[in-house]
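Hi again,

Forgot to attach this to my earlier email, sorry! This is the prediction with LLP bound. I've pasted everything inline since the attachment limit keeps bouncing my files.
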Amino acid sequence: MSAGFSRASGELRCDGVALAELAERFGTPLYVYSAASVEAAYRAYDAAFAAVPHRICYALKANSNGTLLRRLAGWGAGADIVSGGELAAALRAGFPPERIVFSGVGKTEAELQAGLDAGIGEFNAESEEEIRRLSALAGRAGRVAHVTLRVNPDIDPRSHPYISTGLRENKFGVDLTLAPELLRRARALPGIEVAGVQCHIGSQMTDLEPVEAAARAVAALSRQLLDEGFPLRSIDLGGGLGIDYTGDGAPDPRELAARVLPALEGLPLLLMLEPGRSLVAPAGALLARVLYVKENRGKRFVILDAGMNDLLRPSLYEAFHRIEPVVERGRQRAEVDVVGPVCETGDFFARSREMESVEPGDLVAVRDAGAYGFSMASNYNLRPRPAEVLVEAGAARLTRRRETFDDLVAAEQDG
Ligand code: LLP
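Structure tokens for the complex follow:
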């Protein structure tokens, strides 16, 4: 049986542990993760790219729970970070600095400095100005910064517009055609070593054609730069592999490898990947309890104790997440809106969704919430963020306690 969530005698479990028990023990709303599922996903990537030198740099933004990070570091993953906070979290979790790559379109001077001080592997630069700033800081510190240039290949990832990043109109990267000129200038700067080229065209990509096109574009540019004598050492194809939220299927790392590896044929470079979602999304669920069921003019609302502050994806992207009663009771199915308690019309998990009828007190699981769930959670409506539990080797452990009101006001100052 594959790792993660499955049903036994009508009851949803995480690696054998009954979710109903976890809800009793830790309360709701509750994020539950399967360590075995994350490990299987990581190993699937590692195996799929075994034919070439590669590094899987986990994108922390998907889920930065410290215990999960420590596991990933232990399995040999690198880290893809986008802020000083994620840098600190990656170092704290034990990722070796040389396996950390710093991405992001707006790194502050303090963040660049922290990356230099830590001796991270690469800075994914997104503009010439950023490289100049990095050069000045590196010069002052007597250090060398390895820079990979994020290019924008103007390719449509065919995903949600908010998570498309490789189109000309997006803020990310630099125009692919201007990259050689820019890198020639960058190469001459003190404290800068040009290490390679990076691209990341979008997230939740289930169509691999644009991914292959991007890989070909970045490979062609890398070949041109190598021919010019740039001492490149890596090629970074970003993250973005989609997962199967709907049950319609999604490509796996093997299919990704089959598409991109031919494009890189003969390139003497370390292949770097930055997956986030595909490593952790299916490994997590958000458990919530039904507070009320009510009808308004023929429309039935299921009101949960979890809201958009706990899991923002449906509200922000109209993202689809499967929602299942934790215990199936064979009740009639009905069309419902599954909503939260937050004072916003946009506070919903599903609209006009057909599911087995639930009643107040029942538990539901919002599936595939391991990525961009807790990491995008907020305290809106002064709601404490949920606790997080990790199921590992048949046992469940609290890896982050539920926030309290005191946590929420801890940074306030009298005045
Ligand atoms: N590398 C870079 C430079 C990125 O910008 C991202 C994600 C990743 C890697 C990881 O991509 P992944 O493998 O997770 O697709 N909050 C949105 C997703 C935003 C993704 C942003 N960048 C969501 O919930 O769908």
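The chain is about 30% helix and 25% strand. The first helix runs from residue 19 to 26.

That should be everything now.

G.
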